[in-house]
C-alpha cells in the first residue's frame, strides 16, 4: 500500500517523462486486475449491445486491497487526462485560447494509453469513477475549482470512457453531464471561456453516439447547439462544430430523416429550410464539411423519391449560384469566368457537390444529371482560356504560376475530382458507360493532348484509372482512344528524369496497371504500342520512387499472367523474355530497390517456370546459327552464368552454377525460391543490410499483432473509440 501510494504521489509530479513511466506501470496493473478480477455477466438489455464486465457481488480480497489506491488513481487520471486528437482548441504559451495548428503526436499517444487505463478503472468500479467525475463537474459549475485546464481534463476523461458503461448507467450519467455543460456555456462570459466550454461540449457529445441515438430530445438539442457554435467566430470553434456535426450525422443519420414523436416534420426538412442561415458565417472549407454531413442524413432516407427531393432541396442554393454564374457567362460571352470571385465560387460549388457525392454515393446521380453538361462546358471553357493565356505569353511556362491560371486550373481539378468520386461511388456501370463517358472524352482527353506539359492535370489520369477499375472490360473499346491521348504525351513528360511531374508518374502507371488488369486485349492491338508499354513498365520498376517501382512490378507480374493465358505467349517471350530477365535481375541486385524483393522474386519465379515447364515452345536463342543451343532451359542457364560471371567476379563458376541450378529447381515453390534468392544476394555481398529482404515477413507479423490488438480491444467494452466501432450506424 505504502509503495503504491508513493507511486501515485510520484505520478502527480509535473514532469512528463516521469509521468509516462508511472503510467506504463498503472496501465499494466489495471489491465491485469481487469483480466483476473472481472467476470463477464450477460448483458441485461440486448445481445446486440455490448455490456461492460461487472464486478462480482463480492469483490475479491485482491481488489479490496487495491481499492483505495485505485480511487486515488482515478482522480489522478481525470485531473491529468491528455488532449484527444478531436479537440482543436488549445491554450497557447501566452495563456490564450487558439486553434491548434499542428497535431501533437506525443500527446495523442499519451491520450491513448491514459484512455485505456481509465476504461479499465471504470470497469473495476463504475460507481467510483462516476462519482469522482460528477463531483469534479460540480466544482466547475459552482466555480470553486473553475479553470480551463480543470474543465478540459475532466471532459476529456468523460469522453474517453464512452462504451465502458451499461446503457442505463450511461444515460443517467450523460443527462447530468450534458445539462451541466450546457448550463455552464450559458453562464460563462468572455469569448475564451465560451470557446473552452463549447469545445468540451462538442467533444463529449461526439463521443457518445449510442446515447444520442437513443434520446432524440438530447440529439436535437445538441445539434441545434452545434448550429449556434457555427456562428461563433472564435478560432477553432466553427471547425470543431462542423467536425462534430459530421461525426454525429454519420452515427445517427436515421434519426434525422424519420418523423420523431412531438415534431411537426423530420429534422432534415427543418434543416433544409433554414440551411442558409445556419451556414452564413462558415468558411468554404467548413461549408463543405457541413454539406457532407447533411449528405449522410439524406442517404439514410430509404424511399428513393423522397431522398431525391431532399437532395434537390439540399443543393438548391449551390444550384442557384451555378445557374446565375452560367446565365451571366452567356450574357458576357464567357468574360465573367475570368473574374477571381467567380472562379472561387465555382470551386466552392464543385467541391460542395463532391463532398455530397462522397456521403450520398450512387443516389447523387440525380444531382450530377442536372449540372453535367454545363460542368463539362465550364471545364472546356477554362481549358481554352488557359491555352489562350499561354499562347499570348509565347508559351512561357511562368504564366502557369499566375493567380489567374492557378484559379482556372483549380476549377478544372475540382471538376475531375467530382467525376472521379461519382464514378467510384456509382452502382450502375451501364449508366456511366452510356450517359457519362461519351460526353467527357473530348473535353477531358482532347484538352490533355492539346495542353502544354505544365498545364496537363494528373487528375485526368486518375479519373480514367478509376473509370477502368469501375467499368472493367466494358471500357475495352475506349482504351485505344484513352491510350492515344494520354500515354505517349505523358511518357515524354516523365522519361527525361526521375523527378519531374511526380503525380503524373504514379497516376500513369496506375492507369497502365488498370488497363492491363481489366482490358488486356486492348493492349495487344498495336505492336508498336506494346513495345512502348513494356519499355515503360521497365522504366517504372527501375524507378527510385518506391510506389512507382512497386506499381511497375505489380503491372509486369499481372501482364505476364495475362500473356500466359493468351495466344501470343510464344511471340511475347521470344521478343521480350531475355530483356525482362536481365532488367529484373538488375534491380534485384542493385541495392536501391530492396523493398520490391517480394514482387521481384515472384516475377523471376514466373519467368523460370515458363522455361522449366516447357510452356515456351519457340526457341529463345537467335536463329542465325551464332548460338548452338538445344533447349530454352540450357540457353537461359548459360546466359545467366555469363551474366553473373561478368557482374559478380567474387563468386566462383561452381558457386554460380549451383545458384542458377537452385533457381530452376525451386522456382515452383515460392517460399523456397525466395529463400534461395536471399542466400544468393547475401553471397554476392551486394547487401550490407539484408533486413529489407524480410520486409514481407515483418509486415505479416505487424498485421497479425494489429489484428490481435483489435480483437482484444473489441472484447473489452469502451476500449475502442466510438468512431472506430463497427456498430450499426443506422440502428434505431
Give the overall shape, derived from the CA principal axes. Answer: globular
Mean pLDDT rating: 86
Through-space gap between termini = 47 Å
What is the count of helical runs?
A: 31
SS elements, strand count? 2
What is the CA-based Rg, rounded? 32 Å
Low-confidence stretches: 39-57, 728-732
Helix content: over 70%
Beta-strand content estimate: under 5%
Tell me the structural class. mainly alpha
Biggest sheet overview = 2 strands, antiparallel
Major sheet strand order: 1-2
Can you offer a commentary on this structure?
Strands 1-2 form a two-stranded antiparallel ribbon. The protein is built from 31 helices and 2 strands. With 732 residues, it is mostly helical. The longest helix has 28 residues, at 365-392. The two termini are 47 Å apart.
Question: Summary?
Answer:
It contains 31 helices and two strands. It has helices spanning 2-11, 16-37, 61-80, 105-124, 126-141, 148-160, 167-187, 191-206, 209-214, 216-229, 237-257, 267-278, 284-299, 304-314, 316-331, 340-360, 365-392, 403-425, 429-450, 458-471, 479-494, 502-518, 520-523, 527-541, 546-564, 569-588, 597-612, 632-647, 653-666, 670-683, 695-715; strands at 89-91, 97-99. 37% of the residues are buried.
Task: Explain the layout of strands and helices.
Blueprint: H1 2-11, H2 16-37, H3 61-80, E1 89-91, E2 97-99, H4 105-124, H5 126-141, H6 148-160, H7 167-187, H8 191-206, H9 209-214, H10 216-229, H11 237-257, H12 267-278, H13 284-299, H14 304-314, H15 316-331, H16 340-360, H17 365-392, H18 403-425, H19 429-450, H20 458-471, H21 479-494, H22 502-518, H23 520-523, H24 527-541, H25 546-564, H26 569-588, H27 597-612, H28 632-647, H29 653-666, H30 670-683, H31 695-715
Antiparallel strand pairs: 1-2
Helix pairs in contact: 1-2, 1-3, 2-4, 3-4, 3-5, 3-6, 4-5, 5-6, 5-7, 6-8, 7-8, 8-11, 10-11, 11-13, 13-14, 13-16, 15-16, 16-18, 17-18, 17-19, 18-20, 19-21, 20-22, 21-22, 22-25, 24-25, 25-27, 26-27, 27-30, 28-29, 29-30
Amino acid at each position: 500500500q505504502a509503495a503504491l501510494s508513493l507511486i501515485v504521489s510520484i505520478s502527480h509530479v509535473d514532469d512528463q517523462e516521469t509521468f509516462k513511466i508511472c503510467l506504463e506501470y498503472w496501465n499494466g496493473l489495471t489491465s491485469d486486475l481487469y483480466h483476473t478480477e472481472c467476470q463477464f455477466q450477460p448483458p441485461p438489455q440486448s445481445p446486440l449491445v455490448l455490456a461492460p464486465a461487472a464486478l462480482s457481488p463480492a469483490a475479491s480480497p485482491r481488489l479490496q486491497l487495491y481499492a483505495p489506491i485505485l480511487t486515488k488513481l482515478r482522480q489522478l487520471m481525470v485531473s491529468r487526462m491528455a488532449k484527444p486528437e478531436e479537440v482543436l482548441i488549445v491554450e497557447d504559451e501566452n495563456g490564450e485560447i487558439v486553434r491548434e495548428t499542428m497535431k501533437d503526436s506525443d500527446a495523442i499517444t499519451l491520450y491513448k494509453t491514459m484512455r485505456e487505463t481509465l476504461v479499465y478503472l471504470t470497469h473495476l468500479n463504475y460507481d467510483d469513477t462516476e462519482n469522482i467525475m460528477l463531483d469534479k463537474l460540480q466544482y466547475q459549475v459552482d466555480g470553486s475549482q473553475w479553470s480551463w485546464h480543470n474543465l478540459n481534463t475532466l471532459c476529456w476523461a468523460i469522453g474517453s470512457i464512452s462504451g465502458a458503461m451499461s446503457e442505463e448507467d450511461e444515460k443517467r450519467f450523460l443527462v447530468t453531464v450534458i445539462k451541466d455543460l450546457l448550463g455552464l456555456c450559458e453562464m460563462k462570459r468572455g469569448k475564451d471561456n465560451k470557446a473552452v466550454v463549447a469545445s468540451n461540449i462538442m467533444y463529449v457529445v461526439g463521443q457518445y453516439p449510442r446515447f444520442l441515438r437513443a434520446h432524440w430530445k438530447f440529439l436535437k438539442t445538441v445539434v441545434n447547439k452545434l448550429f449556434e457554435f457555427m456562428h461563433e467566430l472564435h478560432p477553432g470553434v466553427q471547425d470543431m462544430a462542423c467536425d462534430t456535426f459530421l461525426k454525429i450525422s454519420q452515427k445517427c443519420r436515421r434519426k434525422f430523416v424519420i418523423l420523431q414523436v412531438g415534431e411537426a416534420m423530420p429534422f432534415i426538412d427543418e434543416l433544409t429550410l433554414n440551411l442558409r442561415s445556419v451556414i452564413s458565417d462558415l468558411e468554404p472549407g467548413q461549408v463543405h464539411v457541413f454539406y457532407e454531413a447533411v449528405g449522410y442524413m439524406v442517404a439514410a432516407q430509404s424511399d428513393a423519391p423522397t431522398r431525391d427531393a431532399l437532395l434537390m432541396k439540399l443543393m438548391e442554393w449551390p444550384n442557384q449560384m451555378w445557374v446565375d454564374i452560367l446565365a451571366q457567362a452567356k450574357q458576357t460571352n464567357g468574360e465573367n469566368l475570368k473574374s477571381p470571385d467567380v472562379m472561387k465560387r465555382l470551386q466552392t460549388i464543385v467541391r460542395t457537390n463532391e463532398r455530397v457525392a462522397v456521403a450520398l454515393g450512387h443516389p447523387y446521380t440525380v444531382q450530377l444529371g442536372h449540372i453535367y453538361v454545363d460542368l463539362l462546358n465550364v471545364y472546356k471553357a477554362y481549358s481554352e482560356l488557359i491555352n489562350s493565356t499561354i499562347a499570348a505569353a509565347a508559351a512561357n511556362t511562368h504564366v502557369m504560376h499566375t493567380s489567374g491560371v492557378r484559379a482556372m486550373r483549380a476549377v478544372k481539378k475540382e471538376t475531375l475530382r467530382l467525376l472521379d468520386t461519382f464514378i467510384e461511388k456509382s452502382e450502375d456501370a451501364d449508366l456511366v458507360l452510356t450517359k457519362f463517358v461519351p460526353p467527357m472524352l473530348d473535353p477531358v482527353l482532347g484538352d490533355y493532348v492539346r495542353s502544354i506539359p505544365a498545364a496537363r492535370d494528373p487528375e485526368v489520369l486518375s479519373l480514367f484509372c478509376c473509370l477502368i477499375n469501375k467499368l472493367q472490360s466494358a471500357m475495352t473499346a475506349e482504351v485505344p482512344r484513352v491510350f492515344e491521348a494520354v500515354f505517349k504525351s505523358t511518357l515524354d513528360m516523365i522519361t527525361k528524369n526521375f523527378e519531374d511531374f511526380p503525380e503524373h508518374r504514379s497516376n500513369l502507371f496506375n492507369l497502365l496497371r488498370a488497363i492491363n488488369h481489366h482490358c488486356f486485349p486492348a493492349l495487344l492491338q498495336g505492336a508498336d504500342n506494346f513495345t512502348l508499354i513494356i519499355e515503360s513498365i521497365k522504366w517504372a520498376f527501375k524507378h527510385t520512387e518506391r510506389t512507382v517501382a512497386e506499381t511497375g512490378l505489380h503491372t509486369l507480374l499481372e501482364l505476364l499472367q495475362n500473356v500466359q493465358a493468351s495466344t501470343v505467349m510464344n511471340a511475347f517471350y521470344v521478343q521480350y523474355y531475355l530483356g525482362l530477365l536481365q532488367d529484373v535481375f538488375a534491380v534485384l541486385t542493385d541495392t536501391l530497390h530492396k523493398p520490391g524483393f517480394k514482387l521481384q522474386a515472384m516475377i523471376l519465379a514466373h519467368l523460370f517456370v515458363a522455361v522449366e515447364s516447357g510452356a515456351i515452345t519457340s526457341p529463345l536463342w537467335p536463329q542465325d546459327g551464332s548460338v548452338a543451343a538445344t533447349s530454352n532451359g540450357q540457353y537461359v542457364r548459360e546466359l545467366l552464368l555469363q551474366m553473373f560471371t561478368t557482374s559478380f567476379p567474387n563468386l566462383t563458376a561452381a558457386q554460380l552454377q549451383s545458384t542458377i541450378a537452385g533457381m530452376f529447381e525451386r522456382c515452383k515453390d515460392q517460399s523456397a525460391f525466395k529463400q534461395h534468392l536471399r542466400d544468393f544476394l547475401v553471397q554476392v555481398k551486394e547487401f550490407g543490410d539484408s533486413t529489407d529482404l524480410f520486409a514481407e515477413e515483418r509486415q505479416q507479423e505487424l498485421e497479425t499483432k494489429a489484428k490481435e490488438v483489435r480483437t482484444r480491444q473489441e472484447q473489452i467494452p469502451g476500449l475502442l473509440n466510438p468512431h472506430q466501432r463497427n456498430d450499426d450506424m443506422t440502428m434505431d
